[in-house]
Amino acid sequence: MIVPIILSGGSGTRLWPLSRELYPKQFLPLAGERTMLQETALRVADFAGAEAPLVVCNEAHRFLVAEQLRQVGVEPAAIMLEPCGRNTAPALAVAALQATAEGDDPLLLVLPADHLIGRPEVMAAALAVAAPMAEQGMLLTFGVLPTGPETGYGYIKAGEELAGGGEVSEVIPAVCRVERFIEKPDGPTAQQYLAAGGYFWNSGMFLLRASVWLAELERLAPDILQACRRAWEQAARDLDFIRLGVAEFAACPADSIDYAVMEKTDAAAVVPLPEAGWSDVGSWSSLLAVADHDQQGNACRGDVLVMDSRNCYLHADRRLLAAVGVEDLVVVETADAVLVAHRGRDQEVKAVVERLRAQNREELRLHRVVHRPWGTYEGLVQDERFQVKRITVKPGASLSLQQHYHRAEHWIVVKGSARITCDDQVMLLSENQSTYIPLGASHRLENPGKITLELIEVQSGSYLGEDDIVRLEDKYGR
């Protein structure tokens, strides 16, 4: 039995401004119509012997994960919520504890939610090779055969061959012991690795038996396992989610699977992935490499007009983007931010994100369109003492019963129908009708119809922040 563990805790800062803290890259359709999380979930469903996936994600992303999986018909075994980020070793620890809770001891296929695999049949072949070795107690990592001197990836140096040497299948070369893991190298060092052979890109994907992982974690990083066990023992069910103990998980040391165990264990082996079309899409250049190109090497998404330009990644989210006479640029336009960077320096986008964080800028955290379990809201206009939003509510969904202490609201329905509670009054409004919510009134907005409700909200008051919400009732547990 193989239980896929999908790790969805990443923030994707190098893909800003598309990727934001509260809407990171795994929830974006970067290389097709489906999001990267959806592609990952559908991919593992096709692997032989795979059970329903177990997803570990940031608590703030829980409704995004649940909704995106629902959209593609994937029902997870569980969605485990991290109250704070502690890297991949604790995430896998709590997943392993959950997977073994009923006495089972499955193989765990550990996959980041935000990677691409252009040829999943290669991954399936590698999995078939790795499974018998994982059953015997090996900790398998999947190494991608390098196609160039990439400096954005960590590397794995292969040691002695296992399984008798030579090719172990028609697709997968010999499985080898891991000699060492190597941090992201500089350009000349990466070129040396490529020339020498025997080096693989570190994909961050693993196959291991749950009990073996827990035993090695207890031997090599016992403080992590102890904290995770306490957090898991304090876990509580909330709707479709498993909430870990907050204080217990926060007390856990932060560490990666590689650092905590794989670099120290003598049971690590690497399974090669040749020509699998793998990418972690960790930068705009890596996205350009896997995207469709025109004859001049440009990858364009959205409303883009290109004239005499070459080797550019051009992404228009809201407006027309015109590029004339430029080369080797990344230009990404969103509703509230525009990035212009040279392709050779796109790894430095992370520094832009750190500067935004230092300035406490909202463009780091949110898009102008903000997703909620009931729908979305979008800021249209904001000035002193007023702002205008566009709100959409899914059929059958409702906002919390709430109050505001610093603002009043006007609601104008532009599509669908709205059931509105305002103190002890309940009214049904249709298109072109409006109502007023006084400051301090208890109110709720619901969509009783079969189509999406859209309305315009005009807020006015002395303070218009999202934290001026007192929830009196909320079916989403916020």
From TrEMBL:
Reactions listed under catalytic activity: alpha-D-mannose 1-phosphate + GTP + H(+) = GDP-alpha-D-mannose + diphosphate
Name of protein: mannose-1-phosphate guanylyltransferase
Domain (Nucleotidyl transferase) ranges: 4-295
Family: Belongs to the mannose-6-phosphate isomerase type 2 family.
Sequence ranges assigned to domain Mannose-6-phosphate isomerase type II C-terminal in this UniProt record: 359-474
InterPro entries cross-referenced by the UniProt entry: GMPP_N, Man1P_GuaTrfase/Man6P_Isoase, Man6P_isomerase-2_C, ManC/GMP-like_b-helix, Mannose-6P_isomerase_type2, NTP_transferase_dom, Nucleotide-diphossugar_trans, RmlC-like_jellyroll
Domain MannoseP isomerase/GMP-like beta-helix: 302-356
Enzyme class: transferase
Family matches, as NCBIfam families: GMP_PMI
Organism domain of life: Bacteria
Enzyme Commission code(s) on record: 2.7.7.13
Organism: Desulfurivibrio alkaliphilus (strain DSM 19089 / UNIQEM U267 / AHT2)
Lineage summary: Bacteria, Pseudomonadati, Thermodesulfobacteriota, Desulfobulbia, Desulfobulbales
Keywords, ordered alphabetically: GTP-binding, Isomerase, Nucleotide-binding, Nucleotidyltransferase, Transferase
Pfam families given in the database record: ManC_GMP_beta-helix, MannoseP_isomer, NTP_transferase
Isomerase in keyword set: yes
Single GO MF descriptor: GTP binding
Keyword set includes Nucleotidyltransferase: yes
